[in-house]
C-alpha cells in the first residue's frame, strides 16, 4: 500500500473518475441507447423543444465540420416528417458524442435525460466502496471536498444525489465544471483556488488523466493520479513521475489547521 502524505493540504479537489464508474460505463451509453425514445416521449414539452433548438443552432455552427448532421425544422406535415427530425437529432447527438464534444447544447440535453433516468431509478451513480468512508473521515478532520468535472454541475449533483450510497451531496462543499475553464489548462485551477479562498498549494487534486494532472501541477497544486478499473493506461514515464493510488484509503492527509 502506498501512503501519500501531503503537508499543508487543507482542501481537496477531486475529479469524478476517482469516485465513480459512471460516465463512460453507464451514463454515456444510456444516452446513446435511449435518446430516440426520450425524444418521442418528451417532444411536445417546452424543455425538450429548447434542447432541440440549441442542438439545431449548434449544428448550423458546425456546418463546416466533417460528418455533421443538420437538424431540419418541422413544417407540421405529419408523423413521417417528425420521425425524420427526431432521427436527425439522434444522429447529431451520437456524432457529437463520438467526437467527445462538450458543447452546451449536448450537455444540456444529456443532463435532462440523466435527470429523468435518475428520478425513475433507471440509473444510479455507482460509487467505489472506499470513497464515502474516506470522505467522511477527511471531513471530520476539517478537510473540504470539491468536485471539478467536465460533466455539468447539474449532472454531478444528479450522480451524487442518486448514488448507490444514497444521497451523498452533503459530503461536498462545492461543484465546478468547465464553465470555470478547461481541465487541461492551469488557469482553471487558479480560478478554482481563488473561488474557494484557498492557496493552490493547499489543494490536492485527484484525477485519472495525466494532462489534467500536469495542468494542476503547473498551478502549484498537489496531485495524485487515481488508478481505477476501466481507466486509460499510463505510460512508464507517467507511472514513475506521478504519485499513484488505487484507493482513497492510500491517502493520508493531516488535519486542517
Q: Order of strands across the biggest sheet?
A: 4-3-2-5-6-7
What is the CATH architecture assignment of the largest domain?
3-Layer(aba) Sandwich
Main beta sheet: 6 strands, parallel
Poorly predicted ranges:
1-10
What does it look like?
This protein has helices at residues 23-42, 46-61, 79-98, 104-119, 131-140, 153-161, 186-196, 210-218, 236-241, and strands at residues 4-5, 11-14, 144-148, 174-176, 203-207, 222-226, 244-245, 251-252. With 257 residues, the chain is an alpha/beta fold. The protein folds into two domains: 8-16 and 127-250, HAD superfamily/HAD-like (Rossmann fold, 3-Layer(aba) Sandwich); 24-120, Transcription Termination Factor Rho, Rna-binding Domain, Chain A, Domain 1 (Orthogonal Bundle), CATH 1.10.720.60. Strands 4-3-2-5-6-7 form a six-stranded parallel β-sheet, sandwiched between helices. Strand 5 (203-207), helix 8 (210-218) and strand 6 (222-226) form a beta-alpha-beta unit. Keywords: Amino-acid biosynthesis, Cytoplasm, Hydrolase, Magnesium, Metal-binding, Methionine biosynthesis, Nucleus. InterPro entries: Enolase-ppase_E1, ENOPH1_eukaryotes, HAD-like_sf, HAD-SF_hydro_IA, HAD_sf.
Write the SSE topology:
Layout (H helix, E strand, L loop, with lengths): L3 E2 L5 E4 L8 H20 L3 H16 L17 H20 L5 H16 L11 H10 L3 E5 L4 H9 L12 E3 L9 H11 L6 E5 L2 H9 L3 E5 L9 H6 L2 E2 L5 E2 L5
Parallel strand pairs: 1-8, 2-3, 2-5, 3-4, 5-6, 6-7
What are the key terms here?
Rossmann fold; single chain; 257 residues; alpha/beta; six-stranded parallel sheet; disordered N terminus; Transcription Termination Factor Rho, Rna-binding Domain, Chain A, Domain 1; elongated; two-stranded parallel sheet
Amino acid at each position: 500500500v502506498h501512503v501519500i502524505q501531503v503537508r499543508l493540504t487543507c482542501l481537496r479537489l477531486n475529479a469524478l473518475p476517482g469516485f465513480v464508474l459512471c460516465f463512460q460505463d453507464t451514463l454515456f451509453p444510456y444516452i446513446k441507447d435511449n435518446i430516440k425514445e426520450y425524444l418521442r416521449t418528451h417532444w411536445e414539452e417546452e424543455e425538450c423543444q429548447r434542447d432541440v433548438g440549441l442542438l439545431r443552432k449548434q449544428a448550423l455552427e458546425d456546418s463546416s465540420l466533417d460528418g455533421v448532421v443538420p437538424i431540419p425544422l418541422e413544417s407540421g406535415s405529419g408523423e413521417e416528417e417528425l420521425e425524420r427530425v427526431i432521427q436527425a437529432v439522434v444522429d447529431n447527438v451520437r456524432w457529437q458524442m463520438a467526437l467527445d464534444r462538450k458543447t452546451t447544447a449536448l450537455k444540456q440535453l444529456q443532463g435532462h435525460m440523466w435527470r429523468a433516468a435518475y428520478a425513475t431509478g433507471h440509473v444510479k451513480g455507482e460509487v467505489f466502496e472506499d470513497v464515502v468512508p474516506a470522505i467522511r473521515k477527511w471531513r471530520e478532520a476539517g478537510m473540504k471536498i470539491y468536485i471539478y468535472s467536465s460533466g455539468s454541475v447539474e449532472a454531478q449533483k444528479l450522480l451524487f444525489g442518486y448514488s448507490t450510497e444514497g444521497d451523498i451531496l452533503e459530503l461536498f462543499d462545492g461543484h465546478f465544471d468547465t464553465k470555470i475553464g478547461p481541465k487541461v489548462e492551469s488557469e482553471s485551477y487558479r480560478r478554482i483556488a481563488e473561488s474557494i479562498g484557498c492557496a493552490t498549494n493547499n489543494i490536492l487534486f485527484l484525477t485519472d488523466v495525466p494532462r489534467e494532472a500536469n495542468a494542476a501541477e503547473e498551478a502549484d497544486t498537489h496531485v495524485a493520479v487515481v488508478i481505477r478499473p476501466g481507466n486509460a493506461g499510463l505510460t512508464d514515464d507517467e507511472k514513475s513521475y506521478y504519485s499513484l493510488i488505487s484507493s482513497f484509503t492510500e491517502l493520508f492527509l493531516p488535519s486542517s489547521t
